[in-house]
Amino acid sequence: MRPDTGRAGVVVAGGRSTRFGDTDKATVRVDGVPMIRRVVDGLAPAVDEIVVNCRRGQRPAFEAALSGLEVRFAEDPILDRGPVAGLRTGLQATTAEYAAVVACDMPFVPTALVDHLFAAARTHTGAVPEIGGQRQPFPAVVHVRAGLTACADAFVHQRGRLCEVVDVLDPVVVPERTVRAYADSAALRNINTRADLYEARVRT
User: Fold this and answer.
1) Cis peptide before 139 (omega within 30 of 0)
2) Longest alpha-carbon distance in the chain
3) In sequence order, what DSSP letters do the residues of 73-142 get, joined into one string?
4) Which pLDDT belongs to residue 121?
5) Where's the MobA-like NTP transferase domain (predicted)?
6) Per-block average pLDDT, block size 10, for the chain (204 residues)?
7) What is the pLDDT of residue 160?
8) For residues 13 and 55, is the Cβ–Cβ distance under 8 A?
9) Could you tell me which of 104, 128, 125 has the C-alpha nearest to residue 116?
10) What is d(CA 134, CA 199) in angstroms, rounded to the nearest whole number?
């Protein structure tokens, strides 16, 4: 893949899962499959490469969970700076023109929605779904260089939050009625707690 061509998938997975307990939720199994593997499986058909952002200490467990899949790891140089830092680290690791970005705790994002976001982002800085009247930072597709600039701006000039990255990026917004054609509300929820995991297991 030449620079500024192709599609990447970036999985942001460097958080500490503090609301989940003493287990890294990314490796917890949902219907027998590690959550992070479900995320990668959903992204892979839509992209040319997968980049997984993580802390160095997470990497052995992630490598085991993703055994047999072709992925690259982008380790956070400074820990615990939040999802914007993880997103920036992941985007820095690819030379693709556009990247689909998904959190590691969103195991049901359908490939068809990712493909639609790529199509919507073409010639723009990115595309994000709208749910409940709010623009969602994940899943999204971003122009990689524009995304890196937006992450830097959020850190330097604002409070380093994902919503600020979206504001700076000013992406195409895919309306909820269109999103619903590809995914129900449960498919776009984060699994933050054990209760969320239970609901996800019931769903499957």
Assistant:
1) yes
2) 43
3) EEE-SSSS--HHHHHHHHHHT---SEEEEEETT-TT--HHHHHHHHHHHTTSSEEEEEETTEE-SSSEEE
4) 97
5) 9-151
6) 80 71 81 93 97 94 96 87 92 97 94 97 96 93 97 87 94 96 84 70 54
7) 84
8) no
9) 128
10) 23
> What pLDDT, on the 0 to 100 scale, is given for residue 1?
60
Cα angle 88, 167, 25; round to 5? 50
As annotated, the binding site includes: 12-14, 25, 53, 105
> Is residue 157 classed as helix, strand or coil in its secondary structure?
helix
Nearest CA to 38 among 140, 141, 109?
A: 109
Query: How much is the pLDDT for 78?
Result: 79
Binding annotation for Mg(2+): 105
**14 neighbors 86 (Cβ within 8 angstroms):** yes
State the CB neighbour count (10 A cutoff) for residue 77. Answer: 10
Binding residues for GTP, by number, are: 12-14, 25, 53, 105
d(CA 108, CA 191): 10
What pLDDT does 77 receive? 85
Q: What are phi and psi of 46, to 5 degrees?
A: -100, -5
Q: How far apart are the first and last CA of the chain?
A: 36
What is the distance between the alpha carbons of residues 180 and 153, in angstroms, rounded to a whole number?
Answer: 32
Instruction: Give pTM, 2 decimals.
Output: 0.90
Q: Dihedral through CA 67, CA 68, CA 69, CA 72, nearest 10? A: 60
Place of tokens 């054990």: 194
